[in-house]
Write a structure and sequence with these properties.
The protein is of the alpha/beta class and about 210 residues long. A 5-stranded parallel beta sheet has the order 2-3-1-4-5, sandwiched between helices. The chain is globular, with a radius of gyration of 16 Å. The protein starts with a strand and ends with a helix.
Length: about 210
C-alpha cells in the first residue's frame, strides 16, 4: 500500500506521516517512512540545493527538473523495492506537490509537469493521498516557528515565498482533490494532532483489517 501526505508548508503532514508509520509498526505491519525531496542519499544533496534560501535565483525549470531527478532516484531506490516486498510505503510528499508547487504556483506548463511526473515515478500512483488542508496564515506561522528551532538554518526557501504563492499552492491542492476524490481525502489541518490521526486511521482501518 502506497500512502502519501500532501499540503502547504506547516500543515502538519510530516507529523501525521510519522504517526501513521509508528501505528502501522505497532500493529505488526512492515512499512517504510520516506519523504520528497531527500528520500535517498543523492536526494538529500538535491534537497539542500532546493531548500537553500541563498538559491533565490534558481529558475523554475531548474527547480522542476531537480525535483524530478530526486523522484526518479527515490522511486528506483526506495519506493518500488519496498512495494515489491509488500511493505507499506508512507511518503511525505510525492508528485502532487510538484504539480501544484512547480506547475500551478510557479507557472510551469502543466502538461510537461505531468509528463515528467509520470516518467520520474515510473507510472506509480499512490493508493491513498491525505491532503491536510489549513489556512495559509496558520501553516506559515507553524512553519516559521518550526524552522526557528532547527539546528540547520537557511533551509527555508519556500517559507520565504510571498503569501500569494502559498495561496496558489493551497488552491492547487484543493483542485486536485476535487478531480480525484477516489484517491484524495481532505482533512482539516486546524484540528489537533490526535484528532487528525484518528480520522486518518479510521479511513485506513478497512485496509489495516485486511
Amino acid at each position: 500500500m502506497f500512502v502519501t501526505f500532501e499540503g502547504i508548508e506547516g500543515c502538519g503532514k510530516s507529523t501525521q506521516a510519522r504517526r501513521l508509520a509508528a501505528r502501522l509498526k505497532r500493529e505488526g505491519l512492515s512499512c517504510v517512512l520516506t519523504l520528497e525531496p531527500g528520500g535517498t542519499p543523492i536526494g538529500q544533496k538535491i534537497r539542500r540545493i532546493l531548500l537553500d534560501q541563498d538559491h533565490h535565483d534558481l529558475s523554475p525549470l531548474s527547480e522542476l527538473l531537480l525535483y524530478e531527478a530526486d523522484r526518479a532516484q527515490h522511486v528506483e531506490q526506495v519506493i518500488r523495492p519496498a512495494l515489491a516486498r509488500n511493505q507499506w510505503v508512507i511518503c511525505d510528499r510525492f508528485f502532487d506537490a510538484t504539480t501544484v508547487y512547480q506547475g500551478v504556483a510557479r507557472g510551469q506548463d502543466l502538461q510537461m509537469v505531468q509528463f515528467l511526473n509520470k516518467r520520474a515515478s515510473l507510472g506509480m500512483m499512490p493508493d491513498r493521498t491525505f491532503l491536510i488542508d489549513c489556512p495559509v496564515e496558520i501553516g506559515l506561522q507553524r512553519a516559521l516557528k518550526r524552522n526557528a528551532s532547527l539546528s540547520d538554518p537557511g533551509q527555508d526557501r519556500f517559507e520565504k515565498e510571498k503569501i500569494e504563492f502559498h495561496a496558489a499552492v493551497r488552491e492547487g491542492y484543493l483542485s486536485l482533490a476535487k478531480k480525484e476524490p477516489h484517491r484524495f481525502l481532505v482533512v482539516d489541518g486546524a484540528l489537533g494532532e490526535d484528532s487528525l490521526e484518528a480520522i486518518i486511521l479510521d479511513h485506513l482501518r478497512p485496509l489495516l483489517n485486511k
